[in-house]
Amino acid sequence: MKNIIDLSNGSLKISDRVTVSKEITFDDLRNFAPENSIWDIGNGYKWIYFSEIKIDNYYFYFRICFYQNTTLSRAEFNFYHQPLPEKRSWEDWSEEKDLQQIKMYDEYLIEMMGANNKTFDWGTINSYYDRRSCSTGIGIKYK
Prior knowledge:
Largest sheet: 7 strands, antiparallel
Strand content: 35-45%
Number of strands: 9
Strand order of the largest sheet: 3-4-5-6-9-8-7
Distance between the termini: 27 Å
Helix content: 10-25%
Radius of gyration: 15 Å
Number of helices: 2
Order of helices and strands: EEHEEEEHEEE
Structural class: alpha+beta
């Protein structure tokens, strides 16, 4: 699978036209994708979402977090072999499926950088599985 993270600086290539890096602001990204969903938490943090971005044979879902509109704080993403259903329910979830996903994310990161979590001068990358929120993914935390 294509490597979408530049390990030298942490930039994340979402598509041929969009690369998220420390230089981009929330407004820059929002102007580029005004139709994308956002979540303003109300405490200075805002998230912008990118869904069903096809890269190679996978469907990616990105969540990009900014603090005070100017500081890139975090990026999270998932990828799947097929698009997620528009409406999901608890019947769609199983711990077995989450464990399969985290294994796939670990394999991706190990292939890309030799480990499933790593610290760099610009931040950290890790795979995660949170049983309490029933979520898995790859997270990038920027310094």
